[in-house]
Design brief:
The chain is of the alpha/beta class. It has four domains: 109 residues, NAD(P)-binding Rossmann-like Domain (Rossmann fold), CATH 3.40.50.720; 174 residues, NAD(P)-binding Rossmann-like Domain (Rossmann fold, 3-Layer(aba) Sandwich); 135 residues, Conserved hypothetical protein from pyrococcus furiosus pfu- 392566-001, ParB domain; 88 residues, no CATH class. The chain has 21 helices and 30 strands. α5 crosses α6. The longest helix has 24 residues.
């Protein structure tokens, strides 16, 4: 079983983006799924990448109980229920258009060049950008990318955008203002609006008049947004420190005015290559960008992942051994009174099920109380410090061993046979061997399952029978003298083969349980004193919602808790 996260790609990505994902995760590519198809499988994935044509409504996102991040190839989010994603703790990331990034970098390059040029003409001006104010007119994709880069230069960013929402302004770290206020305060003004009838000649003589004489104007997009004659007059009259303008594209060369040509030859004007020359491989860059964001989020562990704690559906959990119903009944009463899960059961993930290693009584009590979900500590059974020991059973009674064997002989499909002492070491070579008994005199008896019988069923009958016959204690001893010293009334000891974890787990996921008291798992990093709220676990919420709650609850708890480590590895979350 791989520990790598799984990513579902539902939109054609450039191979370079897919390769970046595969460096960090298992990647499945399915580009023709319906919403119903997606809902059925999304729970298997920690991340999903979708295009603008695939809807992610609330019920699909809530079905993604393992989701950490939704990547949107493109800048639109209207096809994703972002509110639901945030409510269940799922990050949503977009891939800003690579053309927007390219134009933003193009803009910043010319802003730096203008700052240096202005400083050469006026030594009182700084050649840097830090501390200066950038006014951005138009806050679409390009404007946002410019703002992000300007903020990293420690610039103050103010924005004029008719439909700029407070949330967007807050998220970008910018300040919304009206056009005149922006023009009056800005050291640099950069235009990033589409050319439409209402934006034609956005910057004319009146607007240029509001600018500071030390300000610079940047317009690397549509040429008709600025009145070239007014700009030339402002530069000639030293009412503006400089400007950056785009060269005319070849197809527009015949229509450019004399003023447009003159202003581009002005000594304080930088003529930039038209953006069509700098865009490059847009799709490849965008796909790599979204892949990088997804991988980065998956790389950071959530609190529950760091501690290997998970909220899981009870119907995906199974014990690996028989349950003592009397203990379950007692614990059910205790859980109803206490309302807390003090110590989470410990499990491992095997064949799409969670197999309980320790705490089966707790799990069964919660199941019978009607809890739809349970918190487990999930251990990787492939770790080197994870081991399984098999207990032996010392059976004590004042009655002699022959009476024990006579009682066991009544079990259907069980065969008892004498075992020579010199053959004990070969006892488990036969596949039908269940265990062997060594009595207090040193005589050995082999317990065999009849051909064609269910070995685990017969083994469970065997253990249940001798548990009723005498008092049973678990032990790791096989030396007779030491056993009799520890258990003076011992009639016999039942010695079982060493089970492998794989055998135990596979049997459990197939509905076959070992007898209680035969297995002892040494579990690394055991967590105790979690004290989770059982009332919240019982709420009729989706698994995704409960996992989001648990992560936040756990983060808050860790912020005020001490971690205690024990050699039998145990972690106590003490507040």
């Amino acid at each position: 079983m791989s520990n790598l996260p799984r990513i579902l790609v539902c939109h054609p990505l450039h191979p370079a983006g897919v390769e970046r994902l595969r460096q960090a995760a298992i990647v499945d590519i399915e580009t023709s799924l319906s919403s119903d198809d997606l809902q059925a499988i999304i729970g298997q994935y920690q991340a999903i990448i979708v295009g603008p044509n695939m809807r992610l409504p609330h019920y699909v996102i809530e079905a993604g109980y393992n989701l950490r991040v939704i990547g949107c190839a493109g800048s639109r989010l209207d096809h994703v229920d972002v509110s639901t994603a945030r409510a269940v703790g799922v990050e949503v990331r977009t891939s800003p258009s690579s053309s927007a990034v390219a134009v933003a970098e193009h803009t910043m390059t010319h802003m730096l060049l203008l700052a240096m040029q202005a400083a050469r003409h006026n030594p009182a001006l700084s050649a840097g950008l830090a501390g200066k104010t950038l006014g951005i007119i138009g806050f679409g994709l390009i404007g946002q990318q410019v703002a992000r880069r300007a903020l990293s230069f420690d610039m103050r960013v103010i924005v004029n955008q008719p439909r700029l929402t407070p949330e967007l302004a807050l998220e970008a770290g910018v300040v919304a203002t009206d056009l005149i206020d922006l023009l009056r305060k800005a050291d640099f003004v950069s235009l990033h609006v589409p050319f439409k009838a209402e934006t034609e000649t956005l910057i004319g003589a009146a607007e240029l008049g509001w600018l500071k004489p030390t300000a610079c104007l940047i317009n690397l997009g549509h040429t008709d947004l600025v009145d070239d004659a007014a700009l030339l007059a402002a530069l000639d009259g030293e009412r503006l420190a400089g400007a950056a303008l785009p060269e005319f594209p070849p197809q527009a060369a015949s229509t450019r005015s004399e003023q447009a040509a003159l202003v581009r030859r002005h000594p304080r004007v930088l003529v930039a290559p038209h953006v069509t020359h700098i865009l490059g491989s847009r799709q490849r860059d965008a796909d790599i960008a979204i892949a990088e964001q997804v991988v980065e989020i998956l790389r950071v562990k959530r609190p529950n992942e760091a501690l290997s704690l998970e909220v899981v559906p009870v119907d995906r959990v199974t014990p690996h051994e028989q349950i003592d119903n009397k203990r379950v009944d007692r614990l059910m009463e205790s859980l109803k009174m206490d309302g807390r899960l003090v110590n989470p059961p410990v499990a491992t993930y095997w064949n799409d099920m969670y197999v309980i290693l320790d705490g089966a009584t707790r799990y069964t009590a919660l199941q019978r109380l009607g809890y739809p979900h349970v918190i487990l500590q999930v251990i990787d059974a492939h770790r080197d410090d994870f081991t399984l020991h098999t207990w032996y059973h010392a059976i004590s009674s004042p009655r002699p061993g022959r009476e024990l064997l006579a009682d066991l002989a009544q079990i259907p499909e069980l065969h008892l046979a004498p075992l020579a002492v010199d053959q004990i070491q070969h006892a488990f070579a036969r596949p039908e061997t269940l265990c062997y008994f060594l009595d207090r005199t040193g005589e050995a008896t082999l317990a065999l399952a009849a051909p064609g019988s269910d070995r685990l069923h017969v083994m469970n009958e065997l253990v249940a029978r001798y548990t009723r016959w005498g008092s049973v204690e678990r032990t790791l001893l096989t030396d007779l003298s030491r056993l009799l010293s520890q258990f003076p009334q011992m009639t016999a000891v039942a010695i079982f083969p060493q089970f492998t974890p794989e055998t135990v787990f596979t049997a459990a996921t197939e509905g076959n349980f070992l007898p209680a008291g035969l297995t002892r798992f040494v579990i690394p990093g055991r967590i105790l004193r979690l004290n989770a709220d059982l009332e919240r676990l019982k709420q009729p919420e989706s698994l995704a919602a409960k996992r989001a709650w648990f992560n936040q609850w756990l983060a808050d708890k860790l912020a005020r808790s001490r971690l205690r480590y024990y050699q039998e590895p145990v972690i106590l979350l003490d507040e």
